[in-house]
């Protein structure tokens, strides 16, 4: 569905440019944007490689396991439908940890694996389970301790202080995560109350 929206937007933009006689400007913007995207990607690769390497060191040194043990009781409270020994919990914890380190690209595969495990747990149904909704809310809100990708972008564009956003990012993502959890709990308990009153 999303690809259809992007194609429609692209087609509408081209048609509008042709009608207004600005096709040359659009072509120039496309090539300039493509060039900037390549430069930006190379800038991001170095930072991503560094932080992925750090995550690998953290995993091999046992630091990641400490994070997992630290957050396991919280995750079990947030996902009471998942058995304590289920593999989905490991993927969820890895997803949350990667998001906290600002590694959204590294968090995505873990989130997808967690969703697949949750779907199996939900009997293979296509509708989202309560745990899937909670994971989606947490993943979208994404508490971030180190906004790695944003720091890399700021460094790439010669920011004088690329790390000055760490405090505000932490505050903003903490607020969004808290809001996501509260909203998720509100709808969960509302559903329980509604089902109990029948």
What's the short story on this structure?
This protein is an all-alpha fold and 198 residues long. Helices cover 80% and strands 0% of the residues.
Account of the protein in words:
Residues 42-151 form the Nucleoside transporter/FeoB GTPase Gate domain. The chain has 198 residues and is mainly α. It has one domain (2-15, 24-196). It contains 8 helices and no strands. It has helices at residues 2-20, 23-61, 63-78, 87-100, 104-121, 130-141, 148-156, 166-196. Helix 2 crosses helix 7 and helix 4 runs antiparallel to helix 5. The protein is globular and about 65 Å long. The two termini are 37 Å apart. The mean pLDDT is 81.
Shape estimate: globular
Strand segment count: 0
Order of helices and strands: HHHHHHHH
Please state the oligomeric state of the protein chains shown.
Answer: single chain
User: Based on helices, strands and strand pairing, what is the structural class?
Assistant: mainly alpha
Output the radius of gyration.
21 Å
**What does the main sheet amount to?**
none
Poorly predicted runs of 5 or more residues: none
Structural features:
198 residues
What is the topology?
Elements: H1 2-20, H2 23-61, H3 63-78, H4 87-100, H5 104-121, H6 130-141, H7 148-156, H8 166-196
Helix pairs in contact: 1-2, 2-7, 3-4, 4-5, 5-6, 6-8
